[in-house]
Amino acid sequence: MIPAAPVLEVEHVGVKFGGLSAVSDVSFTVRRGELLALIGPNGAGKTTLLNTMAGALAPTAGRIRFQDEPIENLPAHRVNALGIGRTFQAAEPFRHMSVRENVMAGGVAAAKIGLLPSLIGWGRAHGAMSELARKADELLAQIGLTARTDDPASVLTAGQRRLLAIARALATGAELLLLDEPGAGLSEAEKQTLVAIIRSLSAAGKTVLFVEHDMGFVGQLSQRIIVLDHGILIADGRPDAVRSDPKVIEAYLGRRRATPATLTPAPASSAAPRQTLLRVRNLAVEYGGQRALDNVSLDVKEGEIVALIGANGAGKSTLLKALARTESSRAEEMSFLGESIAAIGPDQVVMRGLGLVPEGRAIFASLNVLDNLMAGRYAARRMAGIASLLRPSKNEVLATQERLQAVYELFPILMERRDQLAGTLSGGQGQMLAIARALMAAPRLLMLDEPSLGLAPQVVEEIMSCLDRLRSQGLTILLVEQNATAALGIADRGYVLANGRVVKSGSARELRSDPAITSAYLGATNAGEPAANEPVAPARRAAALGSGAS
Amino acid sequence: MLRFLILALALAGSLLLNSGYFTNLLVIIGLHTLPAIGLALLMGYTGQISLGHAAFYGLGAYGAAILGRRLGLDPWLDILVASVIVAVIARWIGALVFRLRGHHLAMATLAFGIIVHIGLVELRDLTGGPNGLTGIPPLSIFGHKLTSDFAIFPVVWGACLLMMALAQNLVGSPLGLSMRAIAENERVAASVGTDVAAVKRHIMMLSGFMAALGGGLYAHYIGYLSPGPFDVGFSIRLLLMVAVGGFANIWGVLFGVVFITLIGELLKPLGSYDVIAYGALLIIVIIFFPRGLLEGLGGLLAHLKSPLLRGAK
Question: What's the pLDDT tens digit per position in A132-145?
């Protein structure tokens, strides 16, 4: 490859949020016409880094130059005017506009028309609208959305929204495109379309930098890969070199080496036939015409840890939300302890003993630790009647005390910090608090959504061992994890989700060595990967490479 | 364009009725339309709430009256100068308050409205305090004084039609797209090169100008000013007019102004308790007709019809 002129130079960039260092000392150069992937595990700081390049966030250290101009302190619209276009993780079309208007809106700033001509509607402003429309139609033809030109953007599929976001960024006249997870949540066919379009943009001379989780997608597109881990750039090079880089393998695959060995999976059939706590048959969830879950059936028996694994966008979180009744769904059967929960409210679900620890923890940042815990007791207290909120009965007070004791025993740090504002806790402590809050309602079945998200390896281990301890105390757990190895390490059984369907289920032991998991995560691109030299490796690789922030 | 012609013809036709009450009502509607259109541009199209628009209307009214009195400006000129000054003030208020969003923005604009109202009451030397200003001369053309409703009618509605046409041009222009983009998602709007803060300031300036123009015409039409009509209650009524009209809809807002003004006539027996009715109406509109009363009722009608249509199949 002939080294072209550098377009974007990132020098020693760092970003701190309060005390937390999200990105530190990252330096790299993007050359004209390059097709560059930015990858890294969840919480590695990829989007933060992208935000600094797009002007959405000023770095706390370092410099960024675009075509030799410093841009690190420019606001987003100025950065865009210089020629950097971006898309967002959620694509974010302007929903109240038509598809054409969305793209036209991208071209407005470059047209530079003031207030007065816009008011009078003569001269340049008059011609500008039809000119914008013409350009928009051209771009829409380029990305193959011509048929949807006059539709409202809100009815587009996820894939079309991503394409629209790219067209909108192109309409600004951008030379460098920063795409944040362009392939997230797309079907395989849609991904192929996207790959072809991004390739054609690159062939037309645009420089493209994209953040992506889907390694298949990355493998097909990128000429060069940059890897971030915990905010630090750990690799930068050609795809094959990066994939075999021991530091990258360590970041993705090697973290949880100890866990499966130290934690003994519960004996698969220790007790007599156990009661089925949760029973789901043919569950389906739709988001605006798009099927997020289809025909999902699963059982959770008392005392089990059941892991729910799958690539980003497979529908894992949606399933938990449907079970917690915060997402509406249709199901042939959805019952807990033999009673249907298909038509009750989310608070009722908690009262029946089905607790959820939501993704991203969702602790009440402005309340202190103790108040957060008490909030977890609210549903149980409310169950005893509204008067119980004002003047709880003696039994309820005792029960609360007992739950608090149990929770403090499990997480002693929370007792130490009970008067501290929850927002000031570290990520790991926050996760403990989120689990503890759900435990306050004394659930029979605890559902956890990605408890290891964004946590350091040793903290993940601590959390996992806590779950193991809870199981030995008789709690049943349904665990959604990006980190499949960690999850299967402590689980009894597992279900593998892909594209909203259960593609595989079985005992954790079977799943750990099942190559089907690898394909569920990696699609067709596992060729050329370092060979698996231990039975755990495929799953572990799957866990790491398929991980997703959303 | 056709709509403007029809409206102009209908207005001209209304004069033929030769009804004093009806013409008076239409003048009031016209005077309210100006600030309401301004607010619709800011709130409906750009997505920035203002609970202080009565202040711009009041500043326009008092500004015109005081400029006329102290500097001896011609009424036409003092309306224009006052409106320009208020536009500049609005731009700076915008620069201040648009650092805030959502509820905080609502609180800040509310506070601005209250501060201006208190200013009108307390700056007795300038505004006459609670007693107000009297003897504001009427507008005149070639020495002919426009005192009657019939005489002021073409002036007020001429200004309304002009401002509506300008607003219509604006929302159909590229800048109109930027405004709608900002209303939906500022982060994305900025990412496609929109200077979000500048656009908001511009629209606030324009919005302030339109409100002040209405206020200035009002001052010279009524001939007497007191702080009463420019309180927060009027801001809320303006908000209600825009809400009834469906926020981002110039013609809908005109309907909203007519609707609320007529409701106001009905509520006169309630005296100062009319606020309760306005509050209830605002809640009903926002909850049940978020796209405006006209469109909402249309949708309701279609909804009621559809079972019949299905039955026919």
Answer: 999 999 999 999 89
Lowest mean pLDDT among A69-83, A156-170, A250-264, B53-67: A250-264
Q: Where are the domains of chain A?
A: 6-93+176-253, 98-155, 259-264+277-545
Is residue B212 a contact partner of residue B34, using CB atoms and an 8 Å limit?
no
Domain ranges of chain B: 2-232
Read off the pLDDT of each residue in A314-322 and give the average, rounded to a whole number.
89
Lowest-pLDDT range of A45-59, A476-490, B7-21, B59-73: A476-490
Check if A96 contacts B (Cβ < 8 Å).
Answer: yes
Q: Which CATH superfamily is domain A6-93+176-253 in?
A: P-loop containing nucleotide triphosphate hydrolases (3.40.50.300)
A124: contact with B, CB 8 A cutoff: no
Name the closest residue on chain A to residue B193, using Cα atoms.
Answer: A77
pLDDT higher at B22 or A529: B22
Contact A109/B206, CB-based, under 8 Å?
Answer: no
CATH class of A259-264+277-545: alpha beta
Give me the interface pTM, i.e. the ipTM.
Answer: 0.90
Contact B191 A85 (CB under 8 A): yes
Q: Please tell me if residue B184 touches chain A, with a CB cutoff of 8 Å.
A: yes
What pTM, to 2 d.p., does this model score?
A: 0.79
Residues 35-54 of chain B with CB under 8 A from chain A are none
Query: What is the three-state SS of A319-376?
Result: HHHHHCCCCCCECCEEEECCEECCCCCHHHHHHCCEEEECCCCCCCCCCEHHHHHHHH
With contacts defined as CB-CB under 8 Å, which chain B residues touch A105?
177-178, 180-181, 189, 192, 194
Question: Chain A partners of B177 at a C-beta cutoff of 8 Å?
Answer: 97, 101, 104-105, 108, 132
Among B199, B207, B295, residue whose Cα is nearest residue B245: B295
User: Would an 8 Å CB–CB cutoff place B172 in contact with chain A?
Assistant: yes
State in Å, rounded, how far the first CA of chain B is from the last one: 39
Average pLDDT along chain A? 84
